[in-house]
Write a structure and sequence with these properties.
Elements lengths: L43 H9 L6 H15 L6 H22 L12 H30 L7 H24 L8 H14 L21 H13 L7 H14 L17 E5 L7 E2 L11 E5 L1 H13 L5 H6 L6 H12 L14 E6 L1 H9 L54 H4 L14 H4 L17 E9 L2 E6 L12 E5 L7 E11 L5 E9 L3 E7 L12 E6 L11 E4 L9 E6 L2 E13 L4 E11 L21
Antiparallel strand pairs: 1-2, 1-3, 4-5, 4-7, 5-6, 6-9, 7-8, 8-9, 10-11, 10-13, 11-12, 12-15, 13-14, 14-15
Helix pairs in contact: 1-3, 2-3, 2-4, 3-4, 4-5, 5-6, 5-7, 7-8, 9-11
């Protein structure tokens, strides 16, 4: 990837058509040099023929050619009209390539594989280079280097530049990277120049030939980017961030940038310093600045709409998949309402402490470790396929077990015939291959990672992973998520934290935010929702009978219903499979109790947490009740 350098030409001063000094927008553009005489980019017809000949069925080759040509295009000198016409030809293939690259880094979990990182970087650079193409034209027109001052071309290129800078922001948000240095200075200065010259409300057609997008203005693009950044996308799942970005064209109509700054209230307002490289901040955090230097976004009308939509929105988007358009769900609306209404206050003081935690990711991994035997019958070793463990003889009555090595039969699955996984061979990785060198090499290392954690033994136990804390507070930890075998996680994922005193005791945390660091490291904000949890199973009472028991669901029970505590007993399930108000049989520690779900506390794509109360209990698990009032309870054991 090539780095953009600041163009010294942008720092020159002179006269613009209005007679004033040339504005300096601080746009980051690369230096251009004179092209060779035979360069195809000098002839629009040759360039169009090149686009028509792209092998669109081969995404990899198309991406290579488009990226290489686009980088070259931004580093040669071209007339403004020719550059404007040519860059429009790049837009459809870049959109096609980016949409095909998403599968390698979206909804795969983080940390990304090497291929996922490179793919995400390529998608980000393609959007960045498109933005550069338009910024070059903007800079030349404003600086007076263009043949004539084309007002219409200036408005369109500024609009397009903001559009693709926004696409770059989205790509950074999808992999939880920090905003690139200088990107908000460009966004703010483009809007500042447009508003000062009264071109910020001129509508510009999308011109994508699909008819899906209506005309928008520079101000609307700017409001959309402010809205996206103020929603704190590093706290959103990737699917939620994409859905939010797709909703911006509709939601920006419920926001406004008022001409007069009302400082009486900061609720539902965000401000940005138009002279600084800073994203928008909540108005409660503003510093005194002149009104011409400050832009304030008022989202109070949007908050009213979202609160109204919340009551009608579904809990998940499964119903919207059939209609072809994902729906905005209640969990996403809840996060957005909180982000756009209340100021970002910290409830607990952070303390910089670096110590080691042992964690497992996912409800099933936590459940399996809580249910595992407290004293394993033998030490676990990583042996070759079909090899017995080399440990001392087990105790009397305990049998030896075969120990499988990681990455072999325990994760063997069928792949479709058109998949790259069909070239993977068990024999190519096992110790049985011997000298057979004609076997196909495994493709698993290139296309897949072990993200589920290593299984310790056949009890379902998963080996905990060691992580380091960056800091901690009363509410949780910031932990550094790194390592070759570390499982992939998403926002809202459950993480079990092993007690240092008892390896069968786990606290329960939820991933609330992520930040991508260097060398495939992640900083993760982990909110601790319980210091202890217990594995259990639930089944519905209404569907249970002596002959036909209802299916059971694995769950984690948090029973902090101590009168001195504000928290109440709750259940954590892998999905919102049950409705509130139903009666369930809860089995924990060999005891079955009747409970009733009273409230849905939290729901995400990874888990659902219900508040419950104990209705009645039984030791025999019959659950029929029979309408008895306990009159003969003390008689049964004596008969």
């Amino acid at each position: 990837m090539t780095d953009s350098t600041h163009n010294p030409a942008s720092d020159k001063e002179g006269s613009n058509p209005s007679g004033g000094q040339r504005p300096i927008l601080g746009l980051l553009i690369p230096n251009q040099s004179a092209p060779k005489a035979d360069n195809m980019l000098l002839d629009l017809r040759e360039t169009e023929a090149w686009f028509e000949a792209l092998p669109m069925a081969n995404v990899g080759e198309t991406a290579r050619q488009v990226y290489k040509t686009l980088v070259e295009f931004n580093r040669i000198q071209l007339p403004d009209q020719l550059r404007a016409k040519t860059v429009e030809k790049f837009r459809p293939p870049v959109e096609y390539i980016t949409s095909n690259l998403l599968k390698y880094y979206v909804d795969t979990g983080l940390p990304l594989s090497n291929k996922g990182n490179k793919t995400a970087s390529l998608a980000r650079e393609l959007q960045k280079e498109l933005a550069i193409s338009y910024k070059i034209i903007v800079q030349r027109i404003i600086a007076g280097d263009s043949g004539n001052f084309d007002r219409r071309l200036l408005i369109v290129t500024m609009h397009r530049a903001l559009h693709y800078i926004g696409e770059t922001l989205l790509q950074n948000a999808l992999v939880y990277c920090a905003w690139p240095t200088g990107i908000w200075r460009e966004i703010n200065s483009l809007y500042a120049y447009a508003s000062q010259n009264n071109i910020h409300q001129v509508p510009v057609k999308a011109d994508d030939k699909s008819g899906r997008s209506s005309a928008t203005t520079i101000e609307e693009k700017f409001k959309g980017l402010m809205l996206f950044a103020s929603a704190t996308p590093h706290r959103l799942r990737q699917s939620h961030a994409r859905l939010l970005f797709a909703q911006l064209p509709e939601w920006i109509h419920y926001t406004q940038i008022p001409e007069t700054d009302d400082t009486s209230s900061s609720l539902g307002r965000f401000n940005v310093d138009l002279w600084a490289d800073m994203p928008p901040l909540h108005n409660s955090l503003r510093t005194p600045l002149p009104g011409t230097r400050m832009a304030v976004l008022d989202v109070r009308e949007l908050l009213k709409k979202l609160r109204s939509d919340f009551e009608k929105a579904p809990w998940d988007s499964r119903g919207g998949l059939h209609g072809g358009k994902p729906e905005v769900t209640r969990p996403l609306l809840r996060l957005l309402i909180m982000a756009w209404s209340r100021p970002p206050d910290r409830r607990f003081v952070r303390t910089r402490l670096n110590f080691e935690l042992h964690v497992v990711a996912g409800l099933h991994a936590i459940y399996g470790n809580l249910q595992a035997d407290s004293t394993p019958p033998f030490e676990t070793t990583r042996a070759s396929v079909f090899a017995l463990d080399e440990t001392p003889m087990p105790k009397r009555g305990e049998r030896r077990r075969i120990e499988w090595s990681a990455g072999e039969l325990e994760r063997a699955t069928l792949a479709p015939l058109d998949s790259d996984f069909v070239t993977d061979s068990l024999l190519a990785e096992s110790t049985l291959t011997g000298s057979r060198k004609n076997l196909t090499t495994s493709m698993l290392q290139e296309f897949g990672d072990d993200g589920s954690g290593r299984v310790d033994d056949d009890s379902g136990e998963v080996l905990p992973h060691k992580v380091k804390t960056v800091n901690e507070s009363a509410g949780g930890y910031c932990i550094r998520w790194q390592g070759n075998q570390i499982p992939r996680v998403k926002i809202g994922e459950l993480v079990g934290v092993q007690s240092p005193a008892d390896r069968r005791t786990y606290g329960l945390g939820v991933v609330r935010w992520m930040k991508q660091m260097a060398d495939q490291e992640l900083d993760i904000g982990l909110e601790v929702v319980a210091t202890r949890c217990q594995a259990g199973d639930v089944r519905e009472v209404a569907k249970s009978s002596p002959r036909n028991r209802a299916p059971s669901f694995k769950c984690l029970m948090i029973n902090d219903s101590d009168p001195s505590s504000d928290s109440q007993a709750s259940l954590v399930l892998s999905a919102m499979s049950l409705q509130t108000g139903v009666d369930l049989w809860l089995s924990t520690g060999g005891k079955e109790q009747k409970i009733r779900l009273t409230k849905l506390i939290e729901f995400s794509s990874a888990f659902a947490r219900y508040q419950f109360e104990f209705a009645e209990s039984t030791d025999d698990g019959s659950g029929d009740g029979g309408g008895t009032n306990g009159e003969f309870d003390d008689l049964w054991s004596s008969l």
